[in-house]
Amino acid sequence: MKPSILAIADSDSYLKLATAFLDRLGPTWHRRVALVRTPVMPTEEQIAAAFEGTSLDPDQLEFLTMQQLNANSIGEDIVFAAATGPVVAEAYSRILRSEPAGARRTALISALPGVAFPATAKGWNYRRAGDAFICHSHAEARDFSFMNEERPGHQPTIMVSKLPFLRSTGFPPAQHEHINRIVFAPQAKVPLLREERESILLALEKTARLNPGIDVVVKLRARAGEPQTHLEQFPYDVLAEDLAASGQLGPQSHLRFDTGSMSEALSERSALVTVSSTAALESIDRGLPTMILDDFGISPEMINTVFQASGLIGNLQSLSDLQFGSPTKAWLRENYFHRVDGSFIDALNSLASRASEGKLQTNQEVLDFIKNQPMRQRLRTVLPTPIVKILQKLRRSFNKSRGFNANSWS
Fold first, then answer.
1. DSSP conformational letter for 73
2. Count of domains observed in the chain
3. Of 20, 91, 93, 94, which sees the most CB atoms within 10 A?
4. pLDDT digit string (tens) for 67-93?
């Protein structure tokens, strides 16, 4: 009898993780993928991009509400919660509360959709009621293991796999030297300041002017106003319109803005530049020149410390000069390009088997943990991010006026 798995997602990047993960498992598993209805649900174009290149049929995609996530409506051995933290926590809570604690039949696993180094307590706490957490590099696994040891009580088992959309079996192919396209992959969160983002667009424009014949593409995850995993305060397409209106990009900009899949954008003879996007890993995987910009720093705040000592660090000036570095083997081995064996799949099969036999247990510490989840966490699964932020601000002001610690609810 085949093991079975349901992957639930709620945003564009997590849906991509879900489809790639199930595709990697292959037809030896019964596979189902569903979108949970939340304010960050992907558009039709984003859904199509997430399924592109996989063996899964987008017409089979299901849509669920949070209320449908319980033991009575889920028959699979494993639920893969490929979703934002609040959705994972709420899904875990609903499933665990609807199953017998001593004979649970649904295993709960989760993962993050890209770079998860350094480990963060916030992301970990959302997911720590699960049975397993999947890391995608040895460096990530060590970092989360340290966090695991520092916290008492139940912690999920840390599994090491590989990002499912990376195709190289170990070290990626050597980089090509001659390029005809530069793809800039934005990160919604960083850089934070408007002027920093504008400087990137101006540098890309300069690169296009200095290097005729090279197509310079800003590969958007979503156009301004469309949903994506993280709220973007200054969308690049809007900034480009403002720069063009002020004359800083000139009457005919050399930049092209595109959506769709990253796989399609990273064609042969492309190069990729980013501040911290996971797209850098896709580019390296294909043997394409890749650059991580350090003009705004290499730091946890910029979500790019994982690329230290990678050999890929550059700046806006080296971009216009087309000076791309090459990844070091030591860095590749520790970060996402390790060789994998069958141990991860074996562990997943074992977890599915235990679930199907009703041999999973939920201890009291986990039940207490999910019972005391704050209301703000549940609000994030149903309210748009801007409204949540307004409510948080109002609550902090209220607490401050009453003399409460403003950080006690953070």
1. T
2. 2
3. 91
4. 999 988 999 999 999 999 999 999 999
Q: What is the DSSP letter of 286?
A: T
CA distance 310 to 286: 16
Which residue reads 């049929």 in tokens?
Answer: 57
Q: Which of 287, 307, 334 is the last residue of a domain?
A: 334
Return the pLDDT at 391.
Answer: 46
312 contacts 280 by C-beta, under 8 angstroms? yes
Determine if the pTM surpasses 0.70.
yes
- CA distances 226 to 49, 201, 257, 286, Å, are 15, 20, 15, 29
DSSP state of 104: B
- Supply 267's token pair: 């064609």
**Cα 331 from Cα 171, distance rounded (Å):** 10
For residue 279, the enclosing domain spans 181-334
The rounded Cα 200 to chain-centroid distance in angstroms is 23
Chain segment 369-378, per-residue pLDDT in tens: 888 766 556 5
* Whole-Å CA distances, 310 to 185, 303, 333: 18, 15, 11
Q: For residues 310 and 72, what is the distance between their CA atoms, to the nearest angstrom?
A: 47
Beta strands in 69-148 (DSSP E): 78-81, 107-111, 132-135
pLDDT band at residue 390 under the 50/70/90 scheme: low
